[in-house]
UniProtKB/TrEMBL annotation:
It catalyses: 3-dehydroquinate = 3-dehydroshikimate + H2O. This is 3-dehydroquinate dehydratase. It comes from the Bacteria. The active site is at Y24, H100. GO terms for biological process: amino acid biosynthetic process; aromatic amino acid family biosynthetic process; chorismate biosynthetic process; quinate catabolic process. Pathway: Metabolic intermediate biosynthesis; chorismate biosynthesis; chorismate from D-erythrose 4-phosphate and phosphoenolpyruvate: step 3/7. The record marks R19 as: Transition state stabilizer.
Amino acid sequence: MTRTIAVLNGPNLNRLGKREPEIYGHTTLAEVEAMCRDAAGEDMILFHQTNYEGQLVEWIHEATDSAADGIIINPAGLTFTSIPVLDALKMFPGPIIELHISNIHRREPIYHRSLVSSVATAVVAGLGARGYSTAVRCMRDLLGD
């Protein structure tokens, strides 16, 4: 049975590989997408990135309305500020994995309080880009066979 996993990425993640490599590494977003697709096996990945809060909210709505089975979301800076992203995620009936490349709890205090964590089924943080493939495998486990 093929399932659909939405992998949604927020602001500045299109700059992976160039942006603060000492924190985010050298892996590009295209490489992250390939890792997700590889980890998904027979499941379908819907992979998106945006620098705009409203677009991220629209993709969460689409995942909800099109019956995506699970959402993996790296809201980036919107993690800590976006009530609209939080409210949209509240409407999603399936499992949600919040993902961060860095360990947000080892960073500056502004990064310690995630709004998204209050609705996430699980959180993956601090594994670098490989956290994405870990999250996809975990989502497949959460969704069951």
